[in-house]
Amino acid sequence: MKTRDNPPTPPPTLGVFDAGLIIIGVVVGAGIFALPSMVAANTGSTGGFAWAWILGGIVSLAGALCYAELTTAYPHSGGEHHFLRRAFGRGTGVLFGWSRLAVLQTGSIAIQAFIVGDYLTRLAPMGDGSSAIYAASTVAMMTGINLLGIQHGKWTQVTLGVATCLGILLVAATGLLGTAEPMIAEATVRGATNGTPAFGLAMVFVLLAFGGWNEAAYVSADVSRRNMVRALIGGIGAITIIYLLVNLAYLRGLGLAGIAGSKAVAADLVERMAGAELAAITSGIIAVAALSTMNATIITGGRSNFALGREVSFFCAIGRSDGARGAPRNALLAQGAITLLLVLLGALTRDGFVAIVEYTAPVFWFFFFLVGVSLFVLRRKDRDRVRPFRVPLYPLTPLIFCGMCLYMIRSSLAYTGIGALVGVGVVLAGLPLLWFGRTRAKAGASLKPEPFIP
User: Fold this and answer.
1) How far, rounded to the nearest angstrom, does the alpha carbon of residue 407 sit from its chain's CA centroid?
2) How far apart are CA 381 and CA 385, in angstroms?
3) Maximum average pLDDT range among 117-126, 219-228, 375-384
4) In a 10 Å sphere around its CB, with 0-12 CB exposed, 13-18 middle and 19+ buried, how is residue 45 labelled?
5) What is the mean pLDDT of the chain?
6) Residues 6 or more apart whose Cβ sits within 8 Å of residue 195
7) What does the alpha-carbon distance between residue 434 and residue 312 come to, in Å, rounded to a whole number?
8) Which of 260, 208, 286 is closest to 49 using CA atoms?
9) How far apart are CA 112 and CA 353, in angstroms?
10) The most confident of 193-197, 336-340, 410-414, by mean pLDDT
């Protein structure tokens, strides 16, 4: 039945496999090749190192279960924007939409672009500014592919996702099946950490590596409700297994202190176990992994920005779509333009990856916390809402998730630099802009109905 809260939508276009690969593609990126060294440096023992990754999977699963209830009860291309709007009102939803456009999604794409640029530069340097040139070119290329339509973006994601998983498993197999002994004994790990290991800080990096599974919310309207739950749970389970295998390979090949002291742990592992030639191939694998994450993020970001354009008259231009291709054309173009500005900013700072991680972290976890709280609010507000999936062990599961989000907000402010303040400032700067858009809407500005973007 057609209602205001449940508008008619076309049949789902993505299956369990497609949605699962989008989740895996967003999460399993270049982070697994960079973050383990920081985790190892802050755990202090092999057991603590392994437990940190298992705990990361448990926390992510708790969040995925919360999202499974929200996405199946409220399937919508606006994802978290839609949940926040229903729970807390239009203002919160719109502020989140602005944050996605200006900080979160564009920052995430820029981070992956710099990773691609850094590793392609190792394979084929282009002189000064090589990394930024590669990064900007990659953003333009991947945005162009998604402008062709969801099917092109989907098949690109499937190809990159499969290649990423195969590449990561190759790295894991190299470490697990090779014959080299660990480079540094575990007893020396505290000397490699340059201080007392801090498990809480290790979890910051672990959860950063697991970050991104929530992006499935933005394709929830393209997936059947039953398949959405399977994709979330199956995707998180597969990611946890992949991460454990890779980190066991690192431990076997390098030892805990060897991991902690490495700046390129995957390349060091492969070079030690199989030689310099395969180490070069590893750089290509990392670039592919970052491309996979970038493409999935572009897909979901275009849809959240489209939802912002449909919500706020000031941004109505990005709420228009290409009906022939089923793509949120203007939203993708705006997202690409802002991302290129962030790439330029990162290039000027000479440390683009770190600067943009700082830029996004506190904003990301703040809104993550609000989404967790929205589950409690919507359970009370919409008591009669049909919920095909309910979070098990409610309210314990969402409470664990919200508690971890609060911890991450604190950590992202305590352990980052000025970039975090800039990100928060950009979000706050959007408040008067959104007030202006609201005033226009009250004055009679309206948006014409437009076909749903699959």
Assistant:
1) 18
2) 9
3) 375-384
4) middle
5) 75
6) none
7) 8
8) 260
9) 8
10) 336-340
Looking at per-residue pLDDT, the higher value among 164 and 294 belongs to 294
Residue type present at position 27: V
Pseudo-torsion of CA 31, 228, 362, 106, nearest 10°? 70
Q: How many CB atoms lie under 10 A from the CB of residue 383?
A: 7
User: How many C-beta atoms surround the C-beta of residue 426 within 10 A?
Assistant: 16
Q: Could you read off the pLDDT of 302-332 as tens digits, one per residue?
A: 777 777 777 677 777 776 665 555 567 788 8
Is the Cβ–Cβ distance between 338 and 101 less than 8 Å? yes
Amino acid code (one letter) for 259: I
Cis peptide bond upstream of 395, omega within 30: yes
| pTM, to two decimals | 0.74
**Two tokens at 276?**
């310099």
Check: CB of residue 387 under 8 Å from CB of residue 69: yes
| C-alpha–C-alpha distance, residues 194 and 188, integer Å | 11
CA 352 from centroid of its chain's CA atoms? 17
DSSP, residue by residue, 382-410: TTT---SS--TTTTHHHHHHHHHHHHHHH
Task: For residue 101, count other CB atoms closer than 10 A to its CB.
Answer: 22
Neighbours of 194 (CB within 10 A): 9
* CA nearest to 329, candidates 298, 361, 375: 298
- pLDDT at 230 exceeding the cut of 60: yes
What is the spatial distance between Cα 82 and Cα 76, in angstroms, rounded to a whole number? 7
Give yes or no for residue 178 having a pLDDT over 50.
yes
Give CA–CA dist 340/361, Å, rounded: 19
Element at 423 (helix H, strand E): helix 418-442
Helix (H, G, I), strand (E, B) or coil at 261: coil
376, pLDDT greater than 90: yes
Whole-number pLDDT of residue 295:
79
Q: Per residue in 108-143, pLDDT tens? A: 888 888 888 877 887 788 877 788 888 899 899 888
Task: Tokens for 217, please give them.
Answer: 């919310």
Sign of torsion over alpha carbons 105, 111, 112, 113? positive
Confidence of residue 159 (pLDDT cuts 50, 70, 90): low
- Rg (alpha carbons) of the chain, rounded to whole number: 21
By three-state DSSP, how is residue 50 classified? Answer: helix
CA distances for 177 relative to 100, 183, 228, 362, angstroms: 42, 16, 36, 40
Q: How far is CA 375 from CA 92, 352, 379, 407, in A?
A: 15, 35, 6, 19
The residue-averaged pLDDT of 253-264 equals 80
Q: Using an 8 Å Cβ cutoff, are 310 and 132 in contact?
A: no
**Distance between CA 79 and CA 85 in Å, rounded?**
10
Higher pLDDT: 82 or 17? It is 82
